[in-house]
Fold this protein.
Amino acid sequence: MRAAQRPRALPLRPGRDGPDRAGPDGNMLGMIKNSLLSTVETWPYRVLSKGEKEQLSYEERECEGGQFAVVEVTGKPFDEASKEAALKLLKYVGGSNDKGAGMGMTAPVSITAFPAADGSLQQKVKVYLRIPNQFQASPPCPSDESIKIEERQGMTIYSTQFGGYAKEVDYVNYAAKLKTALGSEAAYRKDFYFCNGYDPPMKPYGRRNEVWFVKE
């Protein structure tokens, strides 16, 4: 009785099969290596002013524009959707791109949240990650077609910071606090705001999360 022949492995096709087609283990390893070993670039900004009201500290900042990788997810709860999108973006900068490049890390992962009338968040998110400076001029093409590259203009924001592992309820809570602290005089976009996480999941302490309102 003849032994079954082992299937012959096909060679990867550069620019088509890419790192993520080589298997999920290699793809995940590249993402983890990139996340843990890279120097993290923070989205460039400068502080314009600081304030404190209702026991909440906040800042007014001017954030630079640039090229961003973005994923949109709809029809899922905020926490599930944002986790799914963030994982895709981390794989992209970890090597799941046409150059197979581990691009380094930037922070924060910035989630656009769309509040409903009652303050809860709609089942729609757009998650952004700023392309590292080395690749700003010519970002690698994502292997995942759901990831788009967008150029965004600079913006002025109101920001407040808090710790812990942030979930929807935390972002909604701090958005309400920031709204109260700013009062009726500050002009900012009411149809969306940004929920930002600066740290990888494996960092248990000293975590940094922020809510941003975009100044009009």
Q: What stands out?
A: The two ends are 77 Å apart (CA to CA). The chain has a mean pLDDT of 87.
